[in-house]
Amino acid sequence: MADEHLDLSIQLRWGDMDINNHINNVQFARIFEEARVRSFARWLPHRPAGFSLLVARQEIVFSAVLDYSVEPVTVRSCVSRVGTTSFNLSLTLIDPAGITCAVAETTMVSVDPRTGRPTPPPDEVREVLEAHYVADAGLPVR
User: How far from 84 is each of 66, 111, 137, CA to CA, in Å?
Assistant: First the structure.
């Protein structure tokens, strides 16, 4: 396990704001989705044939208002748990001033694309997940 995370710059959009002139909470889920997609594009540039993922669960804890900025936000991405057929991604959204605005934990399940049933990921995927595992990176205990 390498204790490695990935920092991604993601541009906000003017249309992400709501009536209160800050980024709408629904847009946080979209920003985290973009971070998941970019993480896997970097970690697994050549996706193995027959490898498919589904989101099983996502929890977002909001900690600060995110104001619109032309400067991109940073999403810190890492793996916080690796199981037999599923794993958790821990994602932290940081505004341009360095303030943590939200943390998400997303459970992803490796599925057989023919049956839709959970299946262990290929060994090369498991190696990538383990290389990006960071201990104690999950959501704060409540």
Answer: 36, 11, 19
Residue 60's DSSP bridge partners are: 104
How do residues 103-114 score in pLDDT, each as one tens digit?
999 999 999 988
Give the number of other CB atoms < 10 A from CB of residue 33: 15
- Give dist(CA 68, CA 127) in Å, integer: 37
pTM of the model: 0.89
Q: How many CB atoms lie within 10 A of CB 54?
A: 12
Contact (Cβ atoms closer than 8 angstroms) between residue 56 and residue 109: yes
CA dist 118 and 135 (Å) reads: 25
